[in-house]
Amino acid sequence: MSNLIELFAYDFFVKAFLAAVFASISCGIIGGYIVSRRIVFVSGGITHASFGGIGLAFLLGFNPLLGAVLFAVMSALGIQFFTKVAHVREDSSIAIWWSLGMALGIIFVFLTPGYTPNLMSYLFGNILTVTISELVWMFILNVVIILFFAFYFRKILYIAFDEEFARAAGLPVSLFNYLTITLIALTVVLNIRVVGIILILSLLTIPQATANLFTKDFRKMLVLSSVFAFIGTISGLFFSYYLDIPSGAAIIFTLVIIFALLRLYKHFFK
Amino acid sequence: MDALIKIENLSVGYDKQPVLHNVNLEIFENDFLGVIGPNGGGKTTLLKAILGLLKPMKGKIIFREDMRMKKKPIGYLPQVKHIDKNFPITVYEVVRSGSLMKNPKKINTREVKQKVEWLLTEMGVSDIRDKAIGELSGGQMQRVFLCRALLSDPKILILDEPDTFVDNRFEGELYERLKMLNQEMAIVLVSHDVGTISSYVKTIACVNDSLHYHPDNIITQDQLDSYNCPIKIITHGEIPHTVLKRHE
């Protein structure tokens, strides 16, 4: 135990701990929304498309997270546009943006002169190298998400559950949809450093699946998802430290183990 | 007396492609209108137009003066297939979401809560208030959505294929309830199977490409044929008449 506490003497570990807290809250809430609304695939598309922005940032030499935000938001709007205006089937238009972003990313990275040492940490995440400014942005995102969901909780819930009814009641459904898709894009991008592009979908779905084992109430599900995300992230962080394995993968593995154990528990004891 | 809703020469549909042409219809207080017609004939399209979800391409929908608020006093029960039964939402929240249909000025949280409680009790679903929507039987779900529709004190209650929620045993229960509600509000009931409803409804509208209004609940095969309404009628004696879907 004293070993654990000693870890907090390290600056990098304190930052990693804070990153875990912020990632758990934002991914817990946003993931709960995504899963309930069945837009996991859209979120996957946005996530992977953001790789194009990271590649572009490498090539032109600006902050990769900025490039990721740019591409994430662009693909979110692009998917909407393809589906609603150009009448491409939704799953196809998601796949198009998903692969287009990845392809552009690969091209940009290839064109970037020299070796790109950080590339792996964007693809698979490294919670141990999160910087102070990234933490500040994550904190701001958390505040925005919590305030948005606290103030508009029922409206968000009712639109998510029955969009048509909300439209008939004159709620600004499209505005809410654009706001939430923007929050999804921002959540994905700011948490890329924690578990990486390839693995972030897991933080948005596995804790939610675990929470869903115990509650069918939207509010409780958002809170429980954050709790399970936190337990998984922190345990994964310790495993990665003690076993000297990549943090992103360790976190995902822990999340799945927690889900599997609790699912089995429910099967045998309830 | 003016009609609650007056539809004049309405053409409406999707993507500039009208599904309904030149519809004329008036809905009065205490009407109990059965809307019948083949699948794809435009029944749901008509409802969407009334609910304001589809803009008229031609013609207009005129609401009576006391209906002309931002949120129309219309209660709406959707088709069961449009409900995501895996969504993590409780019965209580589904009913409470009916408050969306209330006009902001009138929303008083305490009153809303009291009304939710009253409706849950009245419909006999109070004991399942904390259950998830996916755990309910068809009959329970139907009553929960009826609660939601009634929360905003509608002047018109619109039900889209409510019989698809339940099997025949529970249908009668619903129609008895609607008969009671009809004393306080107009009811528009959409069904592709008029077999059970024709003895409850007062008037019938046949929707297929356009709308043919029939000012009582007796309708003959000849009339349906001339309306271009491909629905088969089976007649049992005098009244009530039974109108059934054409056998495949």
Key phrases:
heterodimer, A: 270 residues, mainly alpha, ABC transporter involved in vitamin B12 uptake, BtuC, 14 helices, B: 248 residues, alpha/beta, Rossmann fold, 6-stranded mixed beta sheet, 3-stranded antiparallel beta sheet, 6 helices, transmembrane (chain A), ABC_TroCD (chain A), Zinc transport system permease protein (chain A), transport (chain A), transmembrane helix (chain A)
Task: Quickly describe the structure.
Chain A has 270 residues and is mainly α.
Could you characterize what this model shows?
The complex is a heterodimer of chains A (270) and B (248). With 270 residues, chain A is mainly α. Chain A has 14 helices and no strands. Chain A has helices at residues 2-7, 11-36, 40-60, 64-84, 90-111, 119-124, 132-151, 153-161, 163-168, 173-190, 192-195, 200-212, 218-243, 247-269. In chain A, helix 2 runs parallel beside helix 7 and helix 7 runs antiparallel to helix 10 (173-190). Chain A starts with a helix and ends with a helix. By secondary structure, chain B is α/β, with parallel strands linked by helices. Chain B has one domain (5-227): P-loop containing nucleotide triphosphate hydrolases (Rossmann fold, 3-Layer(aba) Sandwich). In chain B, the strands form three sheets. In chain B, strands 5-6-7-3-8-9 form a six-stranded mixed β-sheet, with helices on both faces. Chain B is globular. The N and C termini of chain B lie far apart (43 Å). Mean pLDDT of chain B is 82; it is low at 234-242 and 244-248. The A-B interface holds A 36, 38, 154-155, 157-158, 160-162, 164-171, 212, 215-218, 221 and B 51-53, 70-71, 74, 76, 78, 82-84, 87-90, 93-94, 96-97, 100-101, 130-135, 148. Chain A: This is Zinc transport system permease protein.
